[in-house]
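Attaching the record inline, Q. Sequence:
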Amino acid sequence: MLTLFVDKKAKTPLYMQIYDQIRQMIGDGTLGVGNKLPSKRHLAQHLKISVFTIENAYQQLQVEGYVRSVEKKGIYVEEIGKIKGIMTKDKSLQGDHRIKAKPQPFGLYTHVVDTSLFPTKTWARLSREVLRDHADDLLNVTDPQGLYELRQAIASHVFEYRGIHAMPEQVVLGAGSEALITLIVRMLGRDQRYALEDPGYQKTRDRYLACGARILDVDVDDQGLMTSQLDMTNADVVHLTPSHQFPTGVIMPVQRRSEVLDWAQKKDHRFIIEDDYDTEFRFQGRPIPALMSLDGHGKVIYMNTFTKSLAPSFRISYLVLPKTLLERYQKHAPINNCGVANVEQHILARFMSEGVFERHINRMRSVYKAKAKAVYDALEPLAKEQLITRFGIENGLHLVVGLSPRIKEEDVIGNALEQGLVVMGIGAFTSKEKPMTRQALVIGYSGLSMDEIAQAMAILTKAIRMSA
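Structure, as predicted:
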């Protein structure tokens, strides 16, 4: 059966629309010589039009020699040769033209995780159970906020680990942080002015720009985003990473957090977006309470993702909205789409509610703590020589290596690259020519094995000494 597209409102007669499409298929080889066309009756039923219309189209094709009619058998495509004016397949496009991801060179990346830690067998078991128990649900449209059971599990998780009191009704799921930022801008308004940390995560900046939002840069010091500078801007919303600033690794102290909350409370339309991207991985001391847990006025929108705790390919992120914004969100809910496959939502809900997620995080935390210590210890000789300082071992999945004033960031990066190692400087994450932060390197280690860490640190040590 051929699926042809007919427009009953078009000026072109229906039989000519069908004739043109079949003629095109014959010309480009989609219908080859000897192929049988559907019967007039069956095609008419399929397209919900009259048999007479199909008969006129077939008759025109036959008159022009594109098809021939064989009595009591049907209508078949003829050999037409190469005729000008008929589109044919472009031979130059034959072959595999898919865009393929290039393998990353050896490097200290912050956006990868140790995929060997993923509990594949458990996930497969839960997948089978979900397919068995929820076959009908998986095929239906879910709530635009996401599966209720998963939102329930997330609400329990943020209460236990981040001190946030929230109902499942406050949780909104999305396919990655980019989708959630789009939702936030749609909800709060593109006309608002959004303050971002500088240095900060480039993809966050890119997403706000893609949404048409107006951006203001606010510097980061050794206590996080500078509220004194924020006060001098005309920002309406601020997006920050208070529990582990990216990329500096700074933890915002409670006094600075109080200042940010005070800033938001001064005007009704002001809000804070708390990006809590990797705070499951705290290796020393007690967990740091989320900024939202300190908010008594409904000013903080909490945002997190499963990218670090599961894997980057899991495009599952979530917001916890303050109750003050629930009514505003509901106005946009009809045009909002969760974007996360039902099957993944059901599996993750079980993964969390059965306690597997907690055990998985504990295992990852133990492995990453050992990796962070390996990096820290390997750089000890450079620290003793006062060529570097090390910062950020207590939490998160990257360390910051501050460089001696006599060492230039770009020299170390260039020397390391010549020896086959990619490393990022903190300057890559700022929009300013002269950022507040001193020159430093951002060391991602989570995707490397212990042997690879040893190899990378040997190259980095050599590159820093060469640059001194």
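The first strand starts at residue 67 and ends at 70. The first helix runs from residue 14 to 27.

More tomorrow.
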